[in-house]
Please model this.
Amino acid sequence: MNEIIRKRKSVRKYDPTPLDAATMEAVRKEISKVKPLYPEIKFSIETTTKTKGILGVKAPHFLIFGSEDKPGSHENIGFIGQQLDLYFSANGMCACWLGASKPGEAMESDLPYVIALAFGKPEEPLHRELSSFKRKPLSAISEGNNPRLEAARLAPSGVNMQNWFFIADSGKIHCYLKKPNPLVGLMLGKMDNAPNRKGLVYVGTVA
Model:
């Protein structure tokens, strides 16, 4: 997985040809195997060929994520969706989070819509070199040492804000959110679940 994390990228140019039936069946099987961060929060994942939104991309397929509106629901969907994002990247497909898009047709689930993920075959290079990542240095987003911090540094975020902070201590990583400036916060909306007060807001701890 670390190998894929170090070369994965968000792809915005897609081959419009739909994926074949066998590939779509493999995708559905992978969806059935995802592991939630918070198992007690109900979620849904649907496939569709339509989304709408001013910042959308033209792709042959999309995943539509829904979730109960509970504390941790957005973190849960991000954790689940990134498993599928990495699956696509490891299997010759590509993906891109669409934070400003909405379903183009009615969802089957009655759970509130959260976010969409475009996927398909790329019409641009699928992967990138580690040196091409535009990310903050670890010193700007973390304290302490833990090999997992580099994977967190390379993870995608809304407009690459990386508005998080990690403190590694005794084999554990304490996770926090940082509040963006008001203009960026307004633009992101709920994409990054930004806190409404100054400083760091504790999210959870990873053992």
Summary: The longest strand covers residues 113-120. Confidence is low (pLDDT under 50) at residues 184-198. The chain has two domains: 2-120, 134-206. The radius of gyration is 17 Å.
